[in-house]
Amino acid sequence: MKLTLTKPFILRCFLISLFLSLPFLFLHLFSPQQQQQPQHSHSTTKDLTIRPGYTSYETYIQRQLNKTLNPRLRKIWTTRDWNRKIPVFARFFEDLKDKSLLQNTSKALCIGARVGQEVEALRRVGVVDSVGIDLVPYPPLVVKGDFHHQPFGDETFDFEFSNVFDHALYPQRFVAEIERTLKPDGVCVLHVALSRRADKYSANDLYSVQPLVELFNKSVLVHVRTVDGFGLDTEVAFRKKHKLQTSR
Ligand SMILES: C[S@@+](CC[C@H](N)C(=O)[O-])C[C@H]1O[C@@H](n2cnc3c(N)ncnc32)[C@H](O)[C@@H]1O
Ligand SMILES: *[C@@H]1O[C@H](CO)[C@@H](O)[C@H](O)[C@H]1NC(C)=O
Ligand SMILES: *[C@@H]1O[C@H](CO)[C@@H](O)[C@H](O)[C@H]1NC(C)=O
Ligand SMILES: *[C@@H]1O[C@H](CO)[C@@H](O)[C@H](O)[C@H]1NC(C)=O
What we know:
Layout: H1 2-46, E1 48-50, H2 57-68, H3 71-78, H4 80-98, E2 108-111, H5 117-124, E3 130-134, E4 142-144, E5 157-162, H6 171-181, E6 182-192, E7 204-206, H7 210-215, E8 219-229, E9 232-240
Parallel strand pairs: 2-3, 2-5, 3-4, 5-6
Antiparallel strand pairs: 1-7, 6-9, 8-9
One 2-acetamido-2-deoxy-beta-D-glucopyranose binds at residues 172, 176, 215, 217.
């Protein structure tokens, strides 16, 4: 008697509660995934995009060389631009020394240094062991080298500076090469354009610091500030971790 009364009752309670919980179950299963996944890929891919139109690595290099080898421009870079830009770079490097991100004794590399104005600035502020790389050499300040395959051994430099991240066709390689050639505790400073588009020779567009934080996965972000650096508006600094240092 008792059993026949309670069984339908329990069954009815179960069915009602199941019915009531369906909307919550549905919300829980579908809504968080649909919101989180696009947000995650948003930060990595949408804030760093590779420009279309480079059919091969060869055409990318040719396009870079077309400007860098231009004799008329090279004349301007080494004369009129020389005295205009070096003091500006020197000021940036003095500020980095004040923040202890750079020392006179640092072994320093400038990536995509063209005729080496930033290398000359480093030497003038006392960082005497400085050199640059570019597709086109300009000795003695700049040696020939592709930043996608730096011509240096692992853990060579204490400090690396570059204002040409936007010229990287393979940003992952650009950063991996910096992290390879930096010593542990070594510092990388980038000047990038976030709020405006860089020039027509750029190979990528960056819209926030977040993609850099994800690419520099052997380093910690140590400093971000706004600068006025020849069309580049943001200075970002990373310090390379020791091998056993954890991610936080
Ligand atoms: C906008 S210029 C910057 C020159 C210099 N840093 C300055 O501020 O005066 C970009 C430079 O990056 C160099 N470059 C482009 N792609 C490169 C690559 N894959 N490896 C090395 N240098 C590269 C170009 O040759 C050019 O000299
Ligand atoms: C580079 O310039 C040369 C001559 O000015 C031109 O023929 C060539 O198509 C250019 N290459 C690229 C990749 O822009
Ligand atoms: C670094 O070098 C500059 C320029 O030669 C010099 O004025 C400065 O005193 C040096 N700083 C240190 C801490 O040795
Ligand atoms: C760090 O990034 C490199 C390439 O950018 C990738 O190959 C590597 O797996 C990443 N490491 C970690 C721990 O995420």
